[in-house]
Amino acid sequence: MTKKTRSKKQRISRDVAFYDPGPMWHAPDRLKTLLLFFDDIALLVPRYMKDRLERSDPIMATPLRKAGLRHLLEPEVLVDKAATQQLAAALGELIRSGRFDGRSKDRTAFHELSYSRLGGYGDPGLAETLFKSLKARKLTRDTSAKSSLGIQGGIVCC
């Protein structure tokens, strides 16, 4: 029997599942289910949270990393200037349309959103303008962490 070798171009591609919502999983069983159907798991994790996975769930996170099955996507890299501009255009249109009016009065909880997901590294000036626009409508607030902001649930899921 002849052993076949594959060139780099002929290698079989891997199916990667993107885990969402958020950079941390809350139920390891969901990851196990994804791994039944996908080869790898990818998560969008800001640099400042990079080590939290293994601290919060070393039983799942460490073996996945060691086996090369877990991929961390950094919003500091992925959310570039063009992506920030697209986000600002879409979110700006929603804000101006009044879509979020009245939200500041309901009791929806605030969630942590990394500043990098808002485009803080892609276009810092534009991200700051977006933040100020949301803050003026009481849809966001400062947090104790300089790398994130509090945003009202249901406003931005990215």
Describe the structure.
- The chain has 158 residues and is α/β, with parallel strands linked by helices.
- The protein folds into two domains: 14-73, no CATH class; 78-101 and 108-152, Arc Repressor Mutant, subunit A.
- It contains six helices and six strands; from the N terminus they run E-H-E-H-H-E-H-H-E-H-E-E.
- A three-stranded parallel β-sheet has the order 1-2-3. Strands 4-6-5 form a three-stranded antiparallel β-sheet.
- Helix 5 (81-97) packs parallel to helix 6.
- The longest helix has 17 residues, at 81-97.
- It is elongated and about 45 Å long.
- The mean pLDDT is 79.
List descriptors:
alpha/beta; 158 residues; elongated; 6 strands; three-stranded parallel sheet; 6 helices; Arc Repressor Mutant, subunit A; 2 domains; three-stranded antiparallel sheet
Sum this structure up briefly:
Helix content is 37%, strand content 16%.
